[in-house]
Amino acid sequence: MQEMENPGAAASTIHPLGLGFERTLSDMRFMGWISMIYGILTCLSIIGAVLGVPLIIASHRFIEGVNRFELFRNTGTGDELAAGFYELGRSFRILKILTIIFLVLMIGQLVFLFLMGGLGILAGLMES
């Protein structure tokens, strides 16, 4: 694993948030687009659209937050920074709700499978 390099005092003269800010924005933009593509692919099924459409909306808001951070990097105004965090917060709120819905559906599916398996065992016992 490559060690992190210490940018030293030069980082504070380049940008107030340091050298890693641009790299982090690039990674954030990449993850936003990957989530958007995943949401689009999820929407190819009718049932998947239930989770895919909110994922597309959350990804769009995430990318908007990254764009606001880009504007903050270029202009240095605090309004863009606050707007970026606001957009990211909206995106994370939707993702949190989607995660809870996904977990509830998975637990429901497991309960359903166990019930069907138990009914199958009971039906087998009734026949013998």
What is the CA-CA span between the terminal residues? 62 Å
Number of discrete helical segments = 4
On the 0 to 100 scale, the average pLDDT is 84
* Percent strand: under 5%
> How much helicity do the residues have?
over 70%
Low-confidence stretches: none
Q: How does the overall form come out from the CA principal axes? A: rod-shaped
Structural class: mainly alpha
Number of strands: 0
What are the secondary-structure elements, in order, as H or E?
Answer: HHHH
The major sheet is characterized as: none
Radius of gyration: 23 Å
Outline the structure in words:
- This protein is mainly alpha-helical and 128 residues long.
- It has a domain of 88 residues.
- The protein is 84% helix and 0% strand.
- α2 runs antiparallel to α3 and α3 packs antiparallel against α4.
- The longest helix is centred in the last third of the chain and has 50 residues.
- The termini are far apart.
- The model has no long low-confidence stretch (mean pLDDT 84).
What would you say about this model in short?
It is built from 4 helices and no strands. The protein has helices spanning 10-14, 20-42, 46-75, 78-127.
